[in-house]
Amino acid sequence: MLKAECFFLTFTATETPKMAFRKITPQILEEFRLILGEDYVCFDDDSIRNYGHDETEDFNFPPEVVLKPVTSEEISSILKICNKEMIPVTPRGAGTGLSGAALPVFGGVILSMERFSRILEIDERNLQATVEPGVINEVFQLAVKEKGLFYPPDPASKGSCFLGGNIALSSGGPKAVKYGTTKEYVLNLEVVLPTGEIIWTGANVLKNSTGFNLTQLMVGSEGMLGVVTKIVFRLIPMPQKTIVMLVPFFSAEKACESVAAVFKAGIIPSAMEFMERDAIDFAMRFVSGLSIPIKEEVQAHLLIELDGNDLDPMMKDAEKISEIMTIFGSDEILFADTEEQKQNLWRMRRCVGEAVKSHSVYKEEDTVVMRAELPRLLKGVKEIGKKYGFRSVCYGHAGDGNLHVNIIKGDMTDEQWSSNLPAGIREIFELCVELGGTISGEHGIGWVQKEFMDIVFTEKSLQIQKGIRDVFDPHGIMNPGKMFI
Ligand code: 2HG
Ligand code: ZN
User: Fold this and answer.
1) Number of domains in the chain
2) pLDDT value at position 142?
3) 131 with 102, same domain?
4) pTM score, two decimals?
5) Using a 6 Å cutoff on CB, does residue 97 contact ligand 1?
């Protein structure tokens, strides 16, 4: 027994082994019921199954219990118990994540933020809003749009993802190329720490040079440093007009090459998306009523959007873009004439991820490089695929240099899939770093990418990141098993 105890003592919190955690006892369950009420302490089969997965491959890890708090104080009481009793806690938003960040890999508590669903204030005087983390992204966008205001971050899952999850993963989406990602809009956060204290990380101001930036440290921390319970966002005025164009190319690499040329010409589109031929084919088959004529020899498309309030300069930019596209061998450009046509083109782009994944076992990589290196990244991905025998479908936010690489199992054997793939993925990520990039642009590290963190960070850098986590979470109970091996 002594040896076992010594074994526990040699581990630091960031390497918390499963055996360091304890099971939830009936007494602890009773304490949770006293805090939340019977209805919000769930361990029925459906809850255990439904809250054991997110949108990452087919992983499912059963939690011991699903807790549904509605106040910061309730969360504080829960975390104090879990911290004392060494019970792992996985905070969960809508479960739309793609890197396994919300998987309860050590069982324990799923802390669902679904009841934190209030928009607390839209401050039109200061162009700010205070919301709870369980508000759906698009619900918030539409609420501020009614007041002529704009919250730009728009992940593909905006119709279902929670703002709290967008904070946890530092989510992006098509509009990031002009407006930036979630982190650019976060001014202040109320956070319940793993040890139960409730803090605000910053202030509701646009400029802040006061102490370390705990607000930005929380963004992208994947629920490992605490539970966000209030968010103060900055907002901007809503642009009134858009132009949307779908540009076909006979070469996918040429499509990628044309991207940097648009920005070099001084134009910043509000979206610049890339879809390989397979991606658009999958999408058109996946969503009914969405079909556009595509020539046999077309290999890729760019979906480009311009926004603003004055059509004249926007049209001039569109003409300039058309000239540039022609230089890179584009075919005839489709301009969406009506709002409905624009919506349809966006519906097609937004369903690509789901459409591609519905076809086969897959591995999704969220690669990102300097924008002008996109052609070399795409070429490299295809060469690595040939070398290891896997097919990929590529699409994503070309304007950000953020390419989603969906590796498709197809007819690879299980043996090939499990033995070849990690080496192939590692080569893709090494290429990203070679091209000035990194291994995740917006989906995060979570459970599925943690083995590749050494490609990007030195041991010292990883040690510092783990040390920061230990300061926030000395017992390693918050979302354990994520981001670091
Ligand atoms: C997108 O850009 C999203 O479509 C989802 O980031 C990507 O599901 C995916 O592969
Ligand atoms: Zn994306």
Assistant:
1) 3
2) 98
3) no
4) 0.95
5) no
Locate the ligand 1 atom nearest the alpha carbon of residue 350 and give its number.
Answer: 4
Pairing of strands 300-308, 198-200: unpaired
| Statement to judge: residues 222 and 243 lie in one domain | no
Q: Does 262 share its domain with 374?
A: yes
Q: How far does the centroid of ligand 2 lie from the alpha carbon of residue 399, in Å?
A: 11
Asked if the structure places residue 18 within a domain, the reply is yes
d(CA 292, CA 305): 18
Determine if ligand 1 sits within 6 Å of the CB of residue 156: yes
- Whether residue 230 is contained in a domain is answered as yes
> Whose C-alpha lies nearest to ligand 1, atom 1?
156
Report which of 299, 298, 282, 278 is spatially closest to residue 290, judged by C-alpha positions.
282
Q: Where are the beta strands (DSSP E) in 236-333?
A: 236-237, 241-249, 271-276, 300-308
Could you give the CA distance from residue 483 to residue 445 in angstroms, rounded to a whole number?
5
243 and 233 belong to one structural domain: no
CATH of the domain at 307: 3.40.462.10
In a domain, 451, yes or no: no
Tokens of 304: 């480009």
Closest-CA residue, ligand 1 atom 7, reads 353
CA of 72 to the centre of ligand 1 (A): 31
Q: From the first residue on, what is the mean pLDDT of each consecutive set of 10 residues in the chain (485 residues)?
A: 34 48 98 98 98 96 98 99 98 98 98 98 98 99 98 97 98 98 98 98 98 98 98 98 98 98 98 98 88 95 98 98 98 96 96 91 96 98 96 97 95 90 97 98 98 98 98 98 97
Same domain, 218 and 283: no
In a 13 Å sphere around the CA of 135, the CA atoms on its Cβ side amount to 25
134 and 268 fall within a common domain: no
Ligand at minimal distance from the CA of 57 is 1
